[in-house]
Design a protein that fits this description.
The chain has about 240 residues and is α/β, with parallel strands linked by helices. The protein is built from 6 helices and 13 strands. The protein starts with a strand and ends with a helix.
Length: about 240
């Protein structure tokens, strides 16, 4: 799915991953579920590209619905996988989230679970090796992505700012489709380790001026970071 001249999405509003394209090659942000591999290959083909054009994969955090095909890409194609140092153990399967399930609706939760199962969510392969990144680091990858620390959902959650794409990739720092309730629009994400810290971390992106806010779950948001953050704070206060 093409969102802009330098920007593509694979997956859907339940689970998504993204591709940044420049003349230098491709940067992938998040790896969805294992079954998204075929969609990655198909999207690259539609772009006139191949797996050999991928220069790096950045994980917004280490949860299983974001690392799906990461190890396959690293192991079989030599693509380095970048993750914040505080989530490296989670991406390697050495640490798990302790977040509570929270509010849910049976129908929405069932749709998420069924989709995740069909896409290989029960057979996640953890990373054997990662390249750790730090807050403020600009990576030598297509699009010159900048790492923004967004702790809360997990200790090493990050946003990835790519000015050439006018986009901020936020993982689960926020969501625009709550996978457990089905509610749409910018709001706090479920399965968050520290909700108060996650809400406070939103100040890191609200003044960026980027049009596209791209979550791991939900529709792409193109009304700007400031408006997304305003709505999330309102949603959090309404709980």
């Amino acid at each position: 799915m093409k969102l802009g001249p330098h920007l593509r999405r694979i997956g859907n509003d339940i689970v998504a991953a993204y591709l940044i394209e420049t003349d230098e090659g491709i940067t992938v942000v998040d790896a969805g579920l294992a079954g998204h591999w075929s969609e990655l290959v198909a999207e690259l083909s539609a772009m006139g590209r191949s797996l050999a054009d991928i220069r790096g994969l950045i994980l917004t955090h280490g949860d299983t619905d974001h690392i799906g095909f990461a190890e396959r890409l690293r192991r079989d194609h030599g693509v380095p996988v970048y993750v914040h140092e505080a989530d490296a153990a989670r991406a390697r399967g050495e640490a798990k989230s302790k977040a509570s399930f929270g509010t849910f609706k049976v129908g929405a939760t069932a749709r998420f679970m069924v989709y995740a199962s069909r896409k290989g969510g029960l057979r996640t392969t953890y990373l054997s090796e990662v390249v750790v990144v730090h807050d403020g680091q600009v990576l030598d990858l297509p699009g010159a992505p900048r790492v923004i620390g967004m702790p809360g959902h997990s200790p090493g959650s990050i946003a990835v700012h790519v000015p050439i794409a006018d986009a901020v990739f936020v993982g689960d720092a926020l969501t625009t489709r709550h996978v457990l309730t089905g509610r749409h629009g910018p709001q706090p994400a479920p399965f968050t380790d520290d909700p108060a810290l996650a809400l406070a971390s939103l100040t890191r992106i609200e003044d960026l001026g980027a049009t596209w806010i791209l979550p791991g779950h939900g529709a792409p948001w193109n009304e700007g970071a400031a408006e997304a953050v305003r709505r999330i704070r309102a949603a959090a206060q309404a709980r």
